[in-house]
Design goal:
434 Repressor (Amino-terminal Domain), mainly alpha, 149 residues, 10 helices
Length: 149
């Protein structure tokens, strides 16, 4: 299991958990559960943390040791994310059912992600990056680099 770097990034800024929680807009206990990997981080919060720390998501979540400075004021474009999820699934030569089995969910959930009905869950997003080597920053539109390096 890769090592999330939320605590390290927080320590670099000499912040307490309560400081980050306040900045992000959640209660400290929820932030603590995210930092300790006891609770899955929602996709929008992953995006928010990466912008707060000005780093690539792939590094922040321990998918790579390559750290990049990325910060954007853009909001998540769900249509872009949806099209990229579909592109990744097809590049893996998987059906919606195949991908649903990987995520232990339903084909209709995958369809909802690919058709912009719902933003992909953070835990599914991380697993998709892990199995495909596509960058979460690319999937979420924060970077033009497709692959995790």
């Amino acid at each position: 299991m890769e090592r999330f770097r939320l605590e390290d990034l927080r320590d670099e800024k000499n912040l307490l958990r309560k400081d980050v929680a306040r900045e992000i807009g959640v209660v400290e206990s929820v932030y603590s559960e995210w930092e300790n990997r006891k609770l899955a981080i929602p996709t929008r919060r992953i995006y928010q943390f990466a912008n707060f720390y000005e780093v690539n998501i792939d590094y922040m979540l321990g998918l790579t040791d390559t750290r990049k400075h990325i910060k954007t004021d853009k909001e998540i474009d769900i249509d872009l994310v949806s099209s990229r999820i579909k592109e990744i699934r097809k590049s893996l030569k998987m059906t919606m059912r195949d991908l649903a089995n990987v995520f232990n969910t339903t084909s209709s959930a995958i369809s909802n992600y690919e058709n912009s009905k719902f933003l992909i869950l953070g835990s599914f997003l991380i697993e998709l990056a892990r199995i495909s080597n596509y960058s979460i920053d690319w999937i979420l539109g924060r970077s033009n680099e497709k692959y995790i390096k």
